[in-house]
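Hello,

Our lab assistant flagged a job as stuck in the queue for most of the afternoon. It eventually completed. Since we weren't sure the result was trustworthy after the delay, we are filing this so someone can double-check. Below is the sequence as submitted and the structure that was eventually returned. Let us know if re-running is recommended.
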Amino acid sequence: MSPSPLDNLRLRRAYDLISDKLGKVEEELLLHFRSPIPTIDRVAVDAQMKANGVFAEFDHPQLGSVPTVNNPININGITKEKPKLAPEVGQHSVEILRAIGYDETVIDELMRNGVIASIAES
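-- returned structure --
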């Protein structure tokens, strides 16, 4: 059963009233909490963000020291670990398969068949 024209009118009026109220609330919040939104280039050099430890650096094998965003969680008395480079695809495949009990023959077959990715071990 579809809504009657009167129901549609009531729904439209209710929607308009709610939208109007939400719009006024949003305007009120903006008046009280408005602050400039910095651009990305300003964020990276913001003194307060640096003082709060928002940024950290990690060592990249080709690029050297690379800036990144630090873990946002601070626990009193606990030192944060320095961020690390994410592993490459397949970097730990063989190591993980060995750790869970796969033998070398099966691992070699999985690699030959393209089931797992692996990078050359150094």
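-- support follow-up --
The delay was a queue issue, not a problem with the job. The result is valid. The chain has three domains: 1-35, 37-84, 87-122. The helical segments are 5-33, 40-43, 47-51, 93-99, 104-112.
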